[in-house]
Amino acid sequence: xxxxxxxxxxxxxxxxxxxxxxxxxxxxxxxxxxxxxxxxxxxxxxxxxxxxxxxxxxxxxxxxxxxxxxxxxxxxxxxxxxxxxxxxxxxxxxxxxxxxxxxxxxxxxxxxxxxxxxxxxxxxxxxxxxxxxxxxxxxxxxxxxxxxxxxxxxxxxxxxxxxxxxxxxxxxxxxxxxxxxxxxxxxxxxxxxxxxxxxxxxxxxxxxxxxxxxxxxxxxxxxxxxxxxxxxxxxxxxxxxxxxxxxxxxxxxxxxxxxxxxxxxxxxxxxxxxxxxxxxxxxxxxxxxxxxxxxxxxxxxxxxxxxxxxxxxxxxxxxxxxxxxxxxxxxxxxxxxxxxxxxxxxxxxxxxxxxxxxxxxxxxxxxxxxxxxxxxxxx
Length: 379
Fold this sequence. Notes:
By secondary structure, this protein is an alpha/beta fold. The protein folds into two domains: 4-243, no CATH class; 248-371, CBS-domain (Roll). Helix content is 57%, strand content 15%. It contains twelve helices and eleven strands. It has a four-stranded mixed β-sheet, sandwiched between helices. A four-stranded mixed β-sheet has the order 5-6-7-8. α1 (21-34) crosses α2 (45-76), α2 runs parallel beside α4 and α6 packs antiparallel against α7. The two termini are 36 Å apart. The model has no long low-confidence stretch (mean pLDDT 86).
């Protein structure tokens, strides 16, 4: 997801904030300031702003905790987690591959709602303690956080794939049918049905209860988001199915030129980038990989310095690159590329660099195979 701000790492997992998060943060804070959670007399506007911001931060800390529960259990099941991102609809753990067993899928999916319910219990306990100490405002805020976590748990248990409830539903169908693809297809159709139900409900609210127009708009947005998310998740499954049995060798670009490390940027642009349109080059001295340079790295150097800057000064060294091996299955290569947010990966055979893989080549390979109507490619 583009437009993210890094917030560091939690348990080794990168935490990022998408710019759209500020929209929901402002709306939640504004509602808490505009509609205080206590009976009159209300606190001062300054107090309400401070408490509104604090409560919003605790609310989003609850979402992070929910997503961390998913991520930690995924890692315990040997499933890598790329990052956790907060955005306008809440949070998402970007897990780079699917579970290999329905039991793992079920445990990873259900731990999020269970964590939210546990947080609700903690906040409700604090509510009683603070109410007993006559800290009415703080007690009310804890009560609100308790109920919002209950809402998060219940909402996520809706069987609308790819919500937690949809993944739980898929795990149960997968366990019963022993067919991951069929379970995903069924969960996707159910998820899309629920998404359209949200959209229709939002439209009904807009038509018959105009005073609640904001609720209607949110229902439509949530339905639209769930519909697209379900479709994208299913397309990922189809992509994985299409790539089963394909090796890195079959999608490698063998024509990628090997650039000597002493070549300057001006020569690289004039001799290789402009004539070919390539945006990524392997740096090699002989057959040994030295590094890789991309068009984005070149653009960061002032044009006035291109003629005096060798590619070795700006390349990513080989020691920091993920590499693929010629006989490695392409699914594991894609997982490595997703984990590194990389569009290109060098391919090695017998210790020597033989070419490069990029995402466009994979897509082109699939289109070509589909044009020939083949399900496999001769090796």
